[in-house]
Structures are given as structure tokens and as C-alpha cells.
Amino acid sequence: MVPTASKLFGLKHFGLIYSSMGLGNPTGALLVSGLLAGFAYDAEAAKQDSSACVGHDCFERHASLS
Length: 66
Prior knowledge:
Elements: H1 2-9, H2 14-22, H3 24-47, H4 57-65
């Protein structure tokens, strides 16, 4: 990740850019695992006319995305 930050953006603000790039992984994990999986689960539960989803269909869409 260090060569990527220095080659793409230069060394003038290297510390700030390197730290910002390091925040991408946890931010993406939060979005995919927390929000997207929750929406997919709720959509499948709504298809089953229930508040809880039963079966492999509940997580199939999320598993194919990640």
C-alpha cells in the first residue's frame, strides 16, 4: 500500500493519504457486512411474509456478492 500511495499521490501529504487508504478496508467491511447483508436478509424475510428468514435463500445474495 505504501508504493501505491506514494506513486499515485506523491509524498507531499503522504501521512494523511496513507492513513486515509487504511480506513477503506474497515469502512467497506461495515457497508458490506452490516448494511448490505441486513437489507438482503430483510428483503428475503419479506418475501417469506415473516420477520425471520428461514433457509439458504436468506444469505445467498450476500454470499454471492462477497
